[in-house]
Here is the input.
Amino acid sequence: MDVTRRLARYRPGVLALMLAGVLIAGHVGLAQAPQAPAPVGKLRLDQSQSVYNRRIHPKEAPTTINWDERITQLLKEEPGDVIITAVGDMIFNQQISTLQEPERRGLFRIMQEADIAYGNLEFSMNEHPEAQRPFYNFRAGTDFVWEVAAIGINLVSMSNNHALDFGPDGLRDCLKALDHAQIRHAGAGLTLAAAHAPASMNVQSRTTDFSLLSYMRYWTNKFRSTDPAAPSLATIDPAVILVANGDKVDKVEGPLESDIKTMEDDVVLARRHTDVLMVALHNHDVSHDRVYGIQDHAPANDHIMYRRAIDAGADMVLGSGPHVLRGIEIYKGKPIFYSLSDFIYQYRTPDKIPVDLIHQRDLEVDRPTNVSVWDRRDQWQTMEGVLVRMTVNGGKLKRIQLIPITIDDEGPLYGVPRLVSDERAKDTFDRLQKLSAPYGTKLVVKGWYAEVVM
Here is the structure.
């Protein structure tokens, strides 16, 4: 007997009660039944709480500064001038060259108009996402090299602790991409000898030759090359000695002497073939674990490698690595920038490291009490830096200008740099003057930028 014929045997009122009972039972059953798990596939992660989508600070009001006029005045040159710009760490994976805000467009213009625009390339451009080794995902495809070039960069140091994040194949891809875009590079190579070779470049209509050497100093020897015929980095590794101190034994740590001598040999050899020699030092004397605090002072033993580079013949030393500003020293008439801080800091990009919850496991991000993981921010010192603009004429450095920058720490432009208001510029110069005072360095503030007294 089918269902219709069965139901027809009941009176209408009884039938209505039966149907109501079925419906109620169905709803109860649905409420109690466990939901089936989502099918396995691409994970969909809630980004609504991300620093990209959630602000805890009011957006800074735009300034009324005429950046085009200021920068046009800054860019005026004299016959024979060669302009070098230098910035710190670049962790870079989203296009920013098309941004139109005057304080961003103007910043990139300063680099685009320079003859040589240097930065520390602390990410990889490769086609091997499956080769990711560490926690961080600092990678873009090889086509991204054109974005690096678009903001003006044409010279990079590569000896840092993220150059081999995607293994030897990732490094090969990155080097090939840089060569294709004619971005000169130093500090990493397909062999150890290539990693120690200088990157050399000429400037149009100028006879002065420029070169860059690049080294990393880490607190362990984990990046030391074990096969000189394989992809390698140029490193200055640590040495630890034990010292008796009464009934105790103290540890004293410093750079390995043989590595310092190798750097000096590299400098001497490069000096024979270049007029202006730059040395980049990516320095991690300890980890960025915030238990160590803000690392804005170079340890005494670390001064050795910076100064020995100058002693061997370098014309300037460009420091990066601590992710904060450190002082400036004019040593034997040559500038040492102990750390230029960060420049592009897109390390929390959602599609690279997709949720802020992960930062519960990140020792580098401060964890204040009673602050949600989604409200945690990098220390403000990490998001402040300078662009150095140097003028060379006749092979001699004649001017050093410092242009302060800040980096967005929330919102859709997280990690992107911009020029700052005059008030913020003064704060940066005050801090940088204090950091440089132990070296006897003087800054002359000229409104929105400053000059180093040489």
Q: What stands out?
A: The radius of gyration is 28 Å.
